[in-house]
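Entry type: protein chain
Record version: 2
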Amino acid sequence: MEPFLSAHEVSALMLISQDIRYAADLDRSEIEPLINRRLVERATGRPGGRELMITASGSAVLARICTFVTR
């Protein structure tokens, strides 16, 4: 069983899911743990700077959080 996400990792995941422009303020040390857990991936083939995408696993984590919060 993997350890829980830290509050900082959850907030970074939420920022990336909301708008990639917000994620531009995140540094590599904040993004790499999410990539290592396969919650976020670097988008390939997109023009421009660093682009990130939420994976299916990342979306599932966010959906579970939203379900818990709205109870």
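Comment: The chain has a mean pLDDT of 84.
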